[in-house]
Design brief:
Structural class: mainly alpha
Protein name: Putative LRR receptor-like serine/threonine-protein kinase
Keywords: Kinase, Receptor, Transferase
GO molecular function: kinase activity
InterPro entries: Kinase-like_dom_sf
CATH architecture: Orthogonal Bundle
Helix content: 40-55%
CATH class: Mainly Alpha
Number of domains: 1
Distance between the termini: 32 Å
CATH topology: Transferase(Phosphotransferase), domain 1
Shape: globular
Number of strands: 0
CATH superfamily: Transferase(Phosphotransferase) domain 1
Order of helices and strands: HHHHHHH
Strand content: under 5%
Radius of gyration: 17 Å
Number of helices: 7
Length: 156
C-alpha cells in the first residue's frame, strides 16, 4: 500500500514483496489468479490470510510437497509471510527478522528430515530446544543457501 500511495520503493515495500514470494513458495500458487483462490479472493495474500488466520495451514501448502515437510516450519514461514504483507509498512518486520525466522524454519526442517531418515531423535530435539531457548545453533554459513533449500518448480 505504501508504494501505491508514494510511488517510492522502500525497505518495507521490499519486505512486502518478499512476503508474497514466501506465500508463492509454500503454496505453489501465483500471486494473482482469477481461478485459484475462489470467488472472493483474487490474490494470494487475501487467500492465504483467510486460511492461516482460521488455523488451516494445510489449505495453502503446495500438494506436490506430499507431507515431506515439518508443519512447525511451515507455520513459521506462513506467519512471518503474513507479517510481511501487512497493509502498512510500519507494521512489517525488518528483513533481518524475516531471514532469522527462515533460518529457524530450515533448522526445524533439518531435524525433521533427520528423523524421517531414521537418524536419532537427539539431534532433532537439540535443534528444537536451541530454537525454543533462543540459543544460537551455529554460524549462518551452516544454513542452506536459498538455492539449496528451495526446490525448483516443476510443470503441473
Amino acid at each position: 500500500m505504501g508504494y501505491y500511495i508514494s510511488q517510492q520503493l522502500t525497505d518495507k515495500s521490499d519486505v512486502y514483496s518478499f512476503g508474497v514470494i514466501l506465500l508463492e513458495l509454500i503454496s505453489g500458487q501465483e500471486a494473482i489468479s482469477n481461478e485459484s483462490f475462489g470467488v472472493n479472493c483474487r490474490n494470494i495474500v487475501q487467500w492465504a490470510k483467510l486460511h492461516i488466520e482460521s488455523g488451516d495451514i494445510q489449505g495453502i501448502i503446495d500438494p506436490s510437497l506430499r507431507d515431506e515437510y515439518d508443519i512447525q516450519s511451515m507455520w513459521k514461514i506462513a506467519e512471518k509471510a503474513l507479517m510481511c504483507v501487512q497493509p502498512h509498512g510500519s507494521m512489517r518486520p525488518p528483513i533481518s527478522e524475516v531471514i532469522k525466522e527462515i533460518q529457524e524454519a530450515i533448522s526445524i526442517e533439518r531435524g525433521a528430515e533427520a528423523a524421517r531418515e531414521g537418524n536419532s531423535d537427539a539431534s532433532r530435539n537439540s535443534i528444537h530446544s536451541s530454537i525454543n531457548m533462543g540459543i544460537d545453533v551455529g554460524p549462518t554459513e551452516n544454513y542452506l543457501s536459498f538455492d539449496e533449500s528451495i526446490a525448483r518448480p516443476t510443470p503441473r
